[in-house]
Every structure is written in C-alpha cells, then in structure tokens.
Design a protein that fits this description.
Layout: H1 3-12, H2 17-22, H3 26-56, H4 67-93
Helix pairs in contact: 3-4
Length: about 90
C-alpha cells in the first residue's frame, strides 16, 4: 500500500478501526459508532454546502448574531457529549 493512501486511511480511522473495535466492549463500540456518525454527518453537511454554494453562484448568507444558529451549534455538541458520557457514567458510578 502506498504511503499517502495509508496515511489517509489511518487519519480516517479505516485502517486501524476494525482491529481496534474487535478488541473492545459494547460501550467502546457504541462510542465509536456515535463518533463515526457525527463525522459522516459533518462531512456530508460540508460537501453539500460547498456544492450547493458553487451551483448557485450567490453571495454567502451572513449569520452574525443569529440566535437560532448559535443555539443549534451549542446544543448539538452538548447532546452528543451527554449521549457519550451517560453510559460511561452509569458504568463508573453504577
């Protein structure tokens, strides 16, 4: 395998993930699944936004002091962290 391809696969976690997940328990597999889902959703949103903006050839919208956008990008990471921390806290303190 050539060096750039190996680096790309390692950075995306595809080269080491199968072996690492096989040796882990269900909690780690669940966390890895959530992290992977967030990664895929973020990449999809970025690619979708770039392609849509290039196709429309319009000026970018300004979201300065938009309460709705600020709530969304504050609440979504909070919910993700809560979803990841809740099972771990139950194991540690339960």
């Amino acid at each position: 395998m050539n060096h750039p391809r190996r680096l790309t696969l390692t950075l995306t976690g595809l080269l080491i993930a199968p072996a690492a997940l096989a040796a882990r328990g269900p909690l780690q597999q669940g966390v890895a699944a959530v992290v992977f889902a967030v990664l895929v959703a973020a990449l999809f949103a970025i690619v979708f936004s770039v392609l849509r903006h290039r196709r429309e050839h319009t000026a970018a919208k300004h979201f300065h002091q938009s309460v709705g956008v600020e709530l969304i990008w504050t609440l979504i990471p909070f919910l993700i962290l809560f979803a990841l921390a809740w099972p771990a806290a139950q194991i540690i303190f339960g």
